Amino acid sequence: MLKKSAKEKGANFAKVIPTRDIFVEDHVRLKCQYGCDRFARLFTCPPYAPTPDETRKILENYNQGLLVEFTGLMDKGQQRGVHEIMFELEKEAFLNGLYKAFAYTAGPCRICESCPAEKVESPNEFSKKDCKNPEKARPSMEACGIDVYRTARKAGCKINVVKEGERFKSFGLLLLE
């Protein structure tokens, strides 16, 4: 049901995978810290997002996840749609009795034009109370340390490093009981 819904909403591929095939690596979050200009500027990014250790603990509470692939994206602005779809899938799963459902998105949050996190001088766990869309805001897999390349490849997806100007893929993950 959720796989079909994901495709109807715009995904190209969706596959249920066991949580043991979701790989969490510390180096992934390091790339957020030292490779992304959005670090500490969005409430869904580090240091606000769960750490890799917290993510590993979270995964222990789930048996499976729905890996959702979106292809043919040309600019980062198109990821706003990915965020919306992943939120909708989480809500759909919840309303169908999967009350533990939780969605991870792809890349930095793009729900709002600007994020109040940009003005936070000393980030702490209470800073997130200023999020304008807390009901929809979800961290990306990368922000939480999930190795998207390894996870997607294990699920049978082709994924390569994207070069400037190339179309790219984004992946979302919906944790299920």
Q: Enumerate how many helices there are, as a single number.
A: 5
Q: Helical content, roughly?
A: 25-40%
- How big a fraction of the residues is strand? 15-25%
Gross morphology is globular
Alpha-beta classification: alpha+beta
Q: Rg to the nearest angstrom?
A: 15 Å
Measure the end-to-end span. 15 Å
Low-confidence segments, ≥5 residues, pLDDT <50? none
- Overall pLDDT level: 91
Strand arrangement across the biggest beta sheet: 1-2-4-3
- Specify the biggest β-sheet: 4 strands, antiparallel
Count of distinct structural domains: 1
Beta strands, count: 4
The secondary-structure element order is HEHHEHEHE
Structural description of this entry:
With 177 residues, the chain is of the alpha+beta class. The protein has one domain (2-176). It contains five helices and four strands; from the N terminus they run H-E-H-H-E-H-E-H-E. It has helices at 2-8, 26-35, 52-59, 79-95, 148-154; strands at residues 13-18, 64-73, 102-104, 168-176. Strands 1-2-4-3 form a four-stranded antiparallel beta sheet, with helices on one face. The longest helix has 17 residues, at 79-95. The radius of gyration is 15 Å and the shape is globular. The chain starts with a helix and ends with a strand. 38% of the residues are buried. The model has no long low-confidence stretch (mean pLDDT 91).
